[in-house]
Amino acid sequence: xxxxxxxxxxxxxxxxxxxxxxxxxxxLGNEEDLVMHGGGNTSVxxxxxxxxxxxxxxxxxxxxxxxxxxxEAPGFAPxxxxxxxxxxxxxxxxxxxxxxxxxxxxxxxxxxxxxVEAILHAIIPYTFVDHTHADAVVIITNTPGGKGRIxxxxxKNMLIVPYVMPGFILAKTIHDMTKGxxxxxxxxxxxxxxxxxxxxxxxxxxxxxxxxxxxxxxxYLKNQGAKAIKGAKNAKANPLKIAQLRREVSKIWGxxxxxxxxxxxxxxxxxxxxxxxxxxxxxxxxxxxIIRTKRTPVVFSNKPKLDLKQYVKSYKAYFNKNNKGExxxxxxxxxxxxxxxxxxxxxxxxxxxxxxxxISRHTKKAIYQAEHLGGWKALxxxxxxxxxxxxxxxxxxxxxxxxxxxxxxxxxxxxxxSGIGKACVESLVAQGAVVAAIDIATSIKKIFTxxxxxxxxxxxxxxxxxxxxxxxxxxxFGGIDLLISNxxxxxxxxxxxxxxxxxxxxSLNINITSHQKLLQLCTPFLExxxxxxxxxxxxxxxxxxxxxxxxxxxxxxxxxxxxxxAAMELGAKGIRVNMIHPNAVYDTAxxxxxxxxARAKHYGLTVEEYKTNNILKSEVTxxxxxxxxxxxxxxxxxxxxxxxxxxDGGNERVI
Length: 655
What we know:
Layout: H1 7-11, H2 17-29, E1 41-49, E2 55-62, E3 76-80, H3 81-88, H4 95-104, H5 118-123, E4 128-132, H6 135-141, H7 146-154, E5 158-161, H8 168-177, E6 188-191, E7 195-200, H9 203-223, H10 239-253, E8 258-262, H11 265-271, H12 276-279, H13 290-293, E9 298-299, H14 304-322, E10 335-338, E11 342-347, H15 350-370, H16 381-388, H17 391-398, E12 410-414, H18 419-430, E13 434-439, H19 444-447, E14 453-457, H20 463-477, E15 482-485, H21 501-526, E16 533-537, H22 550-570, E17 576-582, H23 593-602, H24 607-611, H25 622-633, E18 644-647
Helix pairs in contact: 6-9, 6-15, 10-20, 18-25, 20-21, 21-22
């Protein structure tokens, strides 16, 4: 591991301690092998004057909920050092009281809750204190004889702390261990099964001590032959199997979850290990991961329902043996091994899935390396249970709040690069869904930056491209619950007598045949979806066609008929199919300012009058159409299928 400290960057901070604390915290936080997703914590001790002009020693410690990789100055909670020193002298302190009294000692009530390690940071007599969950160090501690290996690597100047629960108990333990100790002789502290602490009055020295300690552990692993796993050939994904597994796991969770496949060479090689079930049953990399990943993954065989049944049974047995009055949490696994295919990560949102995927990737690496040092030996079940059911850890998860209506749902939208399709993507995301946004435009890959959207370039008239788009959707998100089939074109006006065969055929290919093929390919996945529903975007031209638009009107009428028949055929499988008929939606790419002015002038109207030329005298926007389409996918329309709903501000010919 290399130091990323830059003297030039540090000089810009002009010696301001809190700014330097932010700088080195980010250096630590941006190294995945040190901390991940809110893990680790840092602090700095600063003398400040209070409102009365009195000078006080303040501990600025990472606040709860902040990530070291992106932390800013407001992410540090200022706590009176004197109060923390008094707290550690107490014979006992409950978790809730610790949080309460730490908040009472804060000098800024608007700041976040101080880290649960605030008291420990306070008793370490140095200006800068860094704490990480360094993979290389924790791997070594998680092996038989791990303490001896740590002593061998670091010698007598490393304080080695046996595992105890974080928070007050850990601070009290180290306080007692270090009474009368010469702190200046210590190179740092290693907490067994937990992580590393370094400290110094200089921010660069504290940071580079961490880098040095971790580098020594990495070199030790290399010298012991504990290399990274050699990758296997990427396995071809089976999208239907992924959708089936996602459905079964979601049933245990009690709501739809997302599922993402990791079939990277390293992941496939790990899944191929003959003892993979045995070694992954021993526990997580560090105890703090358990609230994200559960204690173990599920290892799937060719009988996934039975595998999940056994997983739930084992979890309940683990709970019953260790609980002391706690309420049983959900028993759904957060990640899974698919022998020969890689691993799956489960979560209610892309953010959650990414966290699980990142943690499981590091866990797989750690387990494999530890197996070369005598075997993977994680913390015992009783200690892990205490962490999983720790009230302070559960409070972190409880902050998620009430889920959005479509949370965990997976949608496909075609024609998603502009107009109605783009608005549909935005409306779905606002409701909590994730979306595969499909369009023939190459820009589709860059239009949406949210993790909730997967932009896929696809010509919907090409079956192989459609198949690939669906496969990518399922391996990335886990299945398909919702479909808005929107892709379409509006051919140039021509009378039937003057119709060009190519124009006619192109309209049929895009405006009806592509929808039929998409629906056909999606149906097996919709059957495995949650409250599956389809909306076909048709047109006002179905109930009220106009001359010169036969190529468009006939295709859209055929699409509507397709939807009516699909509603009858798929209803028994719980799949709803409804249609919408938009009209005069002018905020799309085809309606430029010039075209609008020309059309308005043709009818003797202003542009505004032309745009509101309907019974309600109201403009219909792409967002209006999208909101209706998304509503029809949701609970409000849960008992409706085969319906055709106009959205046109009221059109006399349609009415």
